[in-house]
Description:
Organism: Flavobacterium yafengii
InterPro entries: DUF4134
Strand content: under 5%
Protein name: DUF4134 domain-containing protein
Keywords: Membrane, Signal, Transmembrane, Transmembrane helix
Number of strands: 0
Largest sheet: none
Shape: rod-shaped
Order of helices and strands: HH
Structural class: mainly alpha
Amino acid sequence: MNIATTVLVLLAVNYQAHAQDGLAGINEANAQVRSYFDAGTQLMYAIGALLGLIGAVKVYQKWNAGDPDTGKVAAAWFGSCVFLVVVATVIKSFFGV
Length: 97
């Protein structure tokens, strides 16, 4: 009976030691994932700016060619740019980065 009690005590201490490491690991993973949000939002801003420039050139070409659907193309390109900027801003504000 004494050996069984000793084994149970050793298992309980071992289990408790691993539980503390798990909590520290979760907190570290949380901090690491949150650190990626700043770089991700900056990347989304950069992609939005690039799409804005490409869209401006496409709309300018259509406008100079006299295409009647210039308004649709402008709305599509610039709408996608605004969407990317809004999503990046919402992600930043939602996660409190």
